[in-house]
Design brief:
The chain is mostly helical and 934 residues long. Strands 1-2-4-3 form a four-stranded mixed β-sheet. α24 (382-391) crosses α26 (410-422).
Amino acid sequence: MATLTTKLVAISLQNADKAATQIRALKPTVDEFAPAFKQLAATDHTKADAFAVAYTRSLESHDQLALHFDQVARLADADRVAILAANREGGNGIAVIHAAALLPAAQGQVLMKSFMNPTGVVNDRAARDFADWLTSAGALLREKNVPIPAENPPHDWGLGDLWDGIKDGVGKIVDAVKSGIDAVTHAVGDIVSAVANALKDIAGWAADQVRDFVRAVLTAGKALADLISGALKASYDALKKIAQAALEIGKTIGDLLVSAINQAANILSSVARALLELGKSVADLVGWLVGKAAAIVNKLVQTLVQLGRAVAEVLTQAIRFGAALAAAVVRGLVAIGRAAAEIIVAAITNPSNLLNTVLTTLNQLGHTFKSMIEQVAAAGAGFIRTVARTMAGIAGALKDLAAYVAESAIAAVKEVVQGVLDAGRTIGDLIVQLAQSAIAAVRNIIDAAIQIGMTAVKLLKGLAGVVGDLLTAAVKAFFDLGKGIVDFVRATMASSFDLARDLINAAIRAGRAAAQLLSSALEQGFVVLRRVLRTLGPIGGVLDWLVAQAEDVSLLAMRELVAGLSAAGQAVNAILNWAKAAGDAMMRKVIGLLDAAGSAVSMMIDWAKTAGGAALSLVGEVLIRAQHTIDDVLLWVEKDAIPIVAGIVKGMIAAGAKVADLITWAAARTVEAMQAVAGELLAAGTTMAELVADTIAHPGNALTNLVKAFEALGKTLKDIVNSALIQPTQDAARQVFDVLKALGKNALDVLKAAAELGGSALALALTMVLEWFPGSYRALSATEHAEAQKVFGAAIPLDEVRVAAMSPPVDLIEWINGQRPFTTMFLINFASWAEVKIETLMHEMTHVWQGIQTGPMYMVQAIEAQMSSEGYNYGYTDGDTGEGAQGALNAAAGDFSKFNREQQAQIVMHYYVRKFERSLDATAWEPYGQLVHA
């Protein structure tokens, strides 16, 4: 009986499919293939190859396929290579690849090495088989809806049904594709080479084949980068088709760019080129760069430029995605060596925000704005204006623009100035950026502004914000370039108040006199003059001009000047300060103008309060001469310190204010006000008596305040008493004494002060002071009356004599009479009056007699006697009886005038004692006793 091997060898191999049917009918095991193949190969290699092809086709399942080629992988190299070559050439190549995909990696790699690359060069037929196998896998994966296959189901093998056995397991399909690709990759060296070889014939593929191929490779987990690289290795057309297929199956432009970005430059360039040729825009590619690292941006930017895309196009598309991306692209352009000027010029014709971004980014990369505009200028003067306009809106750029202007010709300066103006900035914005060292460039800017047709109004308004030397230089240039005072004044008047003021001041610093400006303003009408006056800064020139005008113009101008200064918060202080520095004559004139122009008295006085006493006096003087009342002027100072009131009053006195009017005002005010007024009046020559006389007419505290004021002014009690005692009436004097009493002045001090003034003053003062102590007085007792009559007879109306029942203060009596009683006309006062001695009464009655004889003058004489060296002793040695004085009495021969008033009283007292009390010899005393008796 023939063996299975014999049967297999005997099969006709003319037709591979028929032979496969016969082999399948014999149901050989995989172990029986090798002996039959070797037997045939020993005699006929052609038949052996045909047997190998037919046997592979006879296999009915994936398991049989895998088992068969697992055995093939284990054969000797020569046999394995021959069997695989036969299958490759016989059309079973994709089955071989499929088998390798089903086997463990080691066996699969052995198979693919022998199948794909047996001689070290990849076999083209094998590469095509690999491509077809992948395409079919991709198609199956695309379907994604295959039922799960039965376990090892029998099946007629064919290319179209290659995957039927594993359709129900998508995961198995993917695993198989992975294994197959890995095996092929191992065979050819790397995945890129594997892909490249598979795509050699892609030019003839249909679009769905390409898509399925890409899907299979990517589903197997292979990198898009490897797929792209392999495609490009095959050809640029292959790359282009693969790129399109990748996009069609859901890959993005970004995926393709990522796959190429970190590979060789030619790969990125090819991918970018392919995308552009496939209808993708530069915007699509540039948009992908949003958020990418600088290195990636640089690479793609360089690639696009190398592909012939204009810098302007790349920048324009970048700005569509935001300033950040545009800035990144600018950095990329710089990194690949593009010049700043080229980048700027490219951005100029595009949206302004692009140019802004370009300039800002270049500045951040170390290019100064000055250097950028210089480069642009070199590219063509027409670009300067556009760049300057954009720079004017970038923080910090104006400073560089100003630096450029400072060094450039007028033609370039004109473009910069126009650009700055086009941006909505002013020439002032540009000027303030100039350093002091470049101040001469201010003229260039003003010159450029004039040359481009800027009006004087717009030009000067544009200087808002410029200060100091720069503003002065700008205004000077305005004049130096042919603009006149009239143009300047008219344009200044169209400016804001603050700017107009600054411009006027700058004009003066630039050499234009205030008088020129004011005269020009006056010629243009008083409305213009008013504005100039209200804005003019240095007040001296204004006032010099103002006081030299006709009276009506001076008054009108002063009103406007005051209004302007008030609006600026200075009131009239600036005017008065200047006038004060110019001297008293100018101050009088200016104060008079201010008053005539309606300035408030309070404003001038407030200024004078801080300006000092001389200013106060001048203000007071001028206001009084201007017919202001004392009340009107002093209303604003009555609550202020004495020096303030005094200063004003001094001026008023100089202007002829009446003493009575000033006292009348002070009478209704405080003691401080009275002090200020009295002090200045006294300093001006008014006497205290006159002040007292004028004050007495006012009720209330006026006189009290005056006395207090005298004291505060350093006047002594003597001065005050004197001012009272020389009043024309005793009543007037009494009012002053009443004030002294009310102020707590000591009666003794008052009398001492009066004593310094002399006799009559003391007598009057004594009379008034004693009125301070209104006591109770009694008539003489019967005994006192009888005894007094013995001595005085009818010389004294004894019934009118009164004896004090209440004494004045002891200190007063002590001063007047050394604690002795004293008499004022008919009133007899005792220091101690509990018991009145008759002899003492006779002494005091003598004073009553003296008063009857000479009037009150005796009291002064008595006081003088007390204070004299003679005193009371007229020559006696015994004070009780007068003994020892006989010689003196006899020598006087009865002439009472030889003795002072106190001695006279002592003589009469001793006369009474010696004759009526002690019966002593009274001969020497008798003539004098007879003198007082009537």
